[in-house]
Amino acid sequence: MSTKKSEIKIQIEVDENNVPENLHWTAKDGGVNNEEAKAMLLSLWDNKNQESLRIDLWTKDMPVDEMKVFFHQTLVAMSDTFYRATEDEKMMETMKDFCDYFADKLDLKKE
Asked: How confident is the model at residue 1 (pLDDT cuts 50, 70, 90)?
């Protein structure tokens, strides 16, 4: 049985203090070619050490109001992903309740 490999590339330009100025990403299998982004959150599971590994980056010109929306949308997506991975509907609903609370406290408009 042959397997297919897929590649996702993330390119980061930093200033003299290693603060990101530009983020671009490419995922050819997904039709994405050198697209600009202002922030990213990447989580990987280290099975050997049983811990999450993370890379959290955002450009210095990422507006705070957009960062709040980015976090809200990420939390909503994580709720959906959690359900797909575990089929735990009760916890997904609890997570969505928190997402509603989060949006309310930050005065974000409902999606």
From this structure: confident
The tokens for 50 are: 């049983």
| pLDDT reported for residue 110 | 57
- The two tokens of residue 26 are 């490419």
Separation of alpha carbons 62 and 64, rounded Å: 6
**Residue 108, pLDDT above cutoff 70:** yes
How many residues are recorded in the chain? 111
